[in-house]
Write a structure and sequence with these properties.
21 strands; about 475 residues; 9-stranded mixed beta sheet; alpha/beta; 12 helices
Length: about 475
C-alpha cells in the first residue's frame, strides 16, 4: 500500500488475517455442505427438498394468505358486465367512430349497445350489469379494475399470458410460482388445486403446469364430484401393504439420489408419492359435504334447475373448504353451458346470460360465505378472463376479442372494497387511464401475499426467471 510514493506497514500479516478469518471460511463451507442432502442426512439431519410444500416465510408481512382465482374462460365483455357506456346506447347500430384495430375474425359490424341495464349497488354505488344480481350484493367488497390490457388477442396465447406471464407454453403458472415461494399451510393436500368444471381452456393443462419449477408445484386437477382425483382411494387391501410399498419406493429413490446427488425431479417424485398417500384420507373428507347445512348448499345453488349452476356451486363451496384447510392457490374453471364459454362471437345475449347464470349465484354465495367466516380478509378473490370484447359487433349480434381495455375485479385479501380503478374511453374500447398490464396484476397479487415479485426468482437456462419477467408495477392505489 502506498501513500505519497512511500509504502506503509500492513495493519496485519497474512498469518494473522487467516487466523482471524478461519471461522468465517468454515462457516461458508458449512453453508454449502448443509445444502447437500447426502451430507445432511449422513449427519442425522433432514433436508427440505426444493419441491417441498412446507410453509415458507414471505418477504414482508402479507395481507393475503390464499388466492381463489375465478377464471372466466373465453373473455367476458367489459361493456356488458362492469363498465357501462351510455354512448354505445346512443350510437347503437351506427358505424363505429373510432379506428378499429385488427380483430380475430375481422367481421366487424356497427356499434353494439349492451342488452343489459346497469344499476349502482352498495354504499359505493358501483355500476354492475343485470347479468350479476348476486355478485352485485357484495359490491362494497369489490375492487373493479376497468383498465386491464393484455398483449394477445388469441385465446391460447392470452391464456398462457394470463396464467404464466408469457404468451407461450412452458412457463410456470402463477399458482405454481405462489406455492413455490410460500409453500402451503396444509401438507395433506396439494398447494395448488384447479377445480375442473368441465372445460379445460385453450392451451390445455400447460396453463396450470409448473414449467421449470419442481413438479410438486404444478396444479392438481380436481373434478367437482365425490371422487375428484383418479385412484385417490387405497389400492391395497391393508394400509400396511401400501405403506411398505411407499417405503420401498422411497428407499429406491433415495439410493438413486445418493449416487447422483440432489435432483429436483427425483425429490419431487418422492414428495408426490408421499402427498398422494396422505391425500387418501384428506380428499374424501374434503369432498364430503355431509357437515355442510342444506341452507349453505342451497345458497351455493345446489338445488338450481340449471345444471351448470349446480356444477359451479360445488366448485365454489369446495374452494372455500380448500382455503379453510390452508391450500394456498385454488383456480376454478367454467362449466359447459351448451355454448362457447364466454366467447360470444355470435349470440351475445343468450351466451353471456347462460354463462352468468352458471356462475353468478355460486360466486355471490362464496363472497358472503368467506366474509361471514372471517376468511375473506385473508383470501384474495380474483375474477378475470384472458381479455375483453369489442364495443362494436362481430356480424350482427356478437363481439370479437379485445385486449386493449377490459374489466376484472378483486375482493378481500387486502384490496380496497367498493372501489373502481382505471377507465376506458367512451366506447369501452381501450384503456385510457391507469392502465393495468397482466404483469402489473401478477406483481400486485404477489405483493398482497407478502412476496416481492422482483426477488422471487428461479435460475433456469442461464438467467434468473420470475413470474413478471423484467416487468410489472404494483398497483398500490387498490391496496387497503
Amino acid at each position: 500500500m502506498s501513500h505519497c510514493g512511500r509504502f506503509l506497514k500492513p495493519s496485519m500479516d497474512r498469518r494473522t488475517m487467516l487466523r482471524r478469518c478461519a471461522n468465517g471460511f468454515g462457516g461458508v463451507a458449512l453453508m454449502a455442505l448443509m445444502q447437500d442432502s447426502k451430507f445432511h442426512r449422513a449427519h442425522g439431519g433432514t433436508v427440505r427438498p426444493a419441491g417441498s410444500l412446507a410453509p415458507k416465510a414471505s418477504h414482508f408481512r402479507p395481507k393475503a394468505r390464499h388466492v381463489i382465482f375465478l377464471y372466466m374462460d373465453g373473455g367476458p365483455s367489459q361493456v356488458d358486465t362492469f363498465d357501462p357506456k351510455p354512448r354505445l346506447t346512443r350510437e347503437h347500430g351506427q358505424p363505429f367512430k373510432m379506428k378499429m384495430e385488427p380483430t380475430q375474425f375481422n367481421d366487424n359490424g356497427s356499434t353494439l349497445a349492451s342488452p343489459w341495464a346497469f344499476k349502482q349497488h352498495g354504499q359505493s354505488g358501483i355500476p354492475i350489469s343485470a347479468l350479476f344480481p348476486c355478485v352485485a350484493e357484495s359490491a362494497d367488497d369489490l375492487c373493479v379494475i376497468r383498465s386491464m390490457v393484455s398483449d394477445f388477442s388469441e385465446h391460447t396465447n392470452a391464456n398462457y399470458f394470463l396464467h404464466t406471464g408469457l404468451g407461450l407454453a412452458g412457463r410456470p403458472s402463477m399458482g405454481s410460482w405462489i406455492t413455490y415461494g410460500l409453500g402451503s399451510e396444509n401438507q395433506n393436500l396439494p398447494g395448488f388445486v384447479v377445480m375442473n368444471g368441465g372445460l379445460i381452456p385453450p392451451g390445455g393443462l400447460e396453463n396450470f403446469g409448473s414449467g421449470f419449477l419442481p413438479a410438486t408445484f404444478q396444479g392438481s386437477i380436481f373434478k367437482p364430484s365425490d371422487v375428484p382425483v383418479a385412484n385417490v382411494l387405497p389400492s391395497e387391501a391393508k394400509p400396511a401393504l401400501q405403506r411398505n410399498k411407499l417405503k420401498l419406493i422411497r428407499n429406491l429413490d433415495e439410493g438413486f439420489l445418493a449416487r447422483i446427488g440432489p435432483d429436483d425431479p427425483v425429490e419431487s417424485a418422492i414428495l408426490n408419492y408421499e402427498l398422494a398417500f396422505r391425500m387418501q384420507s384428506a380428499v374424501p373428507e374434503l369432498m364430503s359435504l355431509s357437515n355442510e347445512t342444506e341452507a349453505t348448499k342451497t345458497t351455493y345453488g345446489f338445488d338450481s334447475q340449471y345444471a351448470p349452476t349446480r356444477t359451479f356451486g360445488r366448485q365454489c363451496l369446495t374452494a372455500r373448504r380448500l382455503v379453510e384447510r390452508g391450500v394456498r392457490f385454488v383456480e376454478l374453471t367454467c362449466p359447459p353451458v351448451g355454448g362457447d364459454r364466454w366467447d360470444q362471437h355470435g349470440g351475445l345475449k343468450s351466451g353471456h346470460e347462460n354463462n352468468a347464470r352458471a356462475v353468478d349465484q355460486p360466486i355471490g354465495a362464496l363472497l358472503k360465505d368467506l366474509k361471514a367466516r372471517g376468511l375473506l380478509e385473508h383470501t384474495l378473490v380474483v375474477w378475470a378472463g384472458e381479455f375483453g370484447r369489442t364495443p362494436f359487433a362481430q356480424g350482427s349480434d356478437g363481439r370479437d376479442h379485445n385486449p386493449f381495455g377490459f374489466s376484472i375485479w378483486m375482493a378481500g385479501g387486502g384490496v380496497k372494497g367498493g372501489t373502481i380503478f382505471g377507465a376506458t374511453d367512451e366506447y369501452g374500447y381501450k384503456a385510457v387511464d391507469n392502465k393495468v398490464h397482466i404483469h402489473d396484476l401478477h406483481a400486485t397479487m404477489l405483493h398482497l401475499l407478502g412476496v416481492d415479485h422482483t426477488r422471487q426468482t428461479f435460475r433456469f437456462s442461464g438467467r434468473d426467471m420470475r413470474l413478471t419477467d423484467v416487468f410489472g408495477e404494483i398497483v398500490h392505489s387498490i391496496i387497503a
